[in-house]
């Protein structure tokens, strides 16, 4: 389904729009996998955020309502601020999951190593470069193989950092509001 989305909305349409708006767009560009990854990660983030919002203690909600706040004010002034660290943590976990995706980017964005600020040009990701560097017959100590391991180490460090930050935020939320079911 995601490849059909790329073919219909990510690639061919840009060639037609390029003529209309004067954009310099390639068939394999960064917009298509970005949109597909966003669609793919939304259920993950929304599910985690829903769990966090539902774990806000009922005593906070009831206390707010007892003090005369409306349901909307309770959500805006009590529930969302209490759940905000968990929601941010869910977004960070979603980002770390998206960083490791390979196949969507290979199919939708291509494999051209390109550093540009234009999202309508070809691009690649770290995981795609690792796969490209490790395919074929190469010696272990070749520069390309060692660069793949270095890229893997960088990807691991970034993902670990995002996961640790999200775990610390959840722990802070749990301690602050004494929530035990997260």
TrEMBL record:
Key words, A-Z: Membrane, Transmembrane, Transmembrane helix, Transport
CDD domains for the chain: TM_PBP2 (cd06261)
Location of this chain's protein in the cell: Cell membrane
Transmembrane in keyword set: yes
UniProt domain ABC transmembrane type-1: residue ranges: 1-166
Entry's transmembrane regions: 30-53, 148-170
Gene Ontology annotations for the cellular component aspect, listed alphabetically: plasma membrane
Main location class: membrane
Coiled coil: none
Topology relative to the membrane: Multi-pass membrane protein
Protein name from the UniProt record: ABC transmembrane type-1 domain-containing protein
């Amino acid at each position: 389904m995601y490849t059909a989305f790329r073919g219909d909305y990510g690639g061919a349409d840009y060639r037609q729009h390029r003529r209309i708006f004067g954009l310099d767009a390639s068939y394999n560009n960064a917009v298509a996998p970005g949109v597909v990854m966003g669609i793919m990660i939304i259920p993950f983030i929304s599910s985690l955020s829903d769990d966090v919002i539902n774990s806000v203690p009922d005593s906070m909600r009831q206390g707010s309502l007892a003090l005369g706040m409306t349901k909307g004010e309770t959500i805006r002034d009590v529930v969302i601020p209490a759940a905000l660290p968990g929601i941010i943590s869910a977004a960070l976990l979603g980002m770390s999951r998206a960083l490791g995706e390979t196949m969507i980017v290979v199919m939708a964005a291509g494999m051209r190593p390109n550093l540009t600020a234009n999202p309508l040009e070809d691009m690649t990701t770290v995981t795609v470069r690792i796969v490209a560097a490790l395919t074929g017959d190469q010696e272990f100590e070749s520069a390309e193989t060692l660069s793949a391991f270095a890229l893997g180490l960088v990807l691991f460090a970034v993902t670990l950092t995002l996961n640790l930050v999200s775990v610390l935020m959840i722990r802070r939320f749990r301690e602050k509001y004494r929530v035990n079911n997260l």
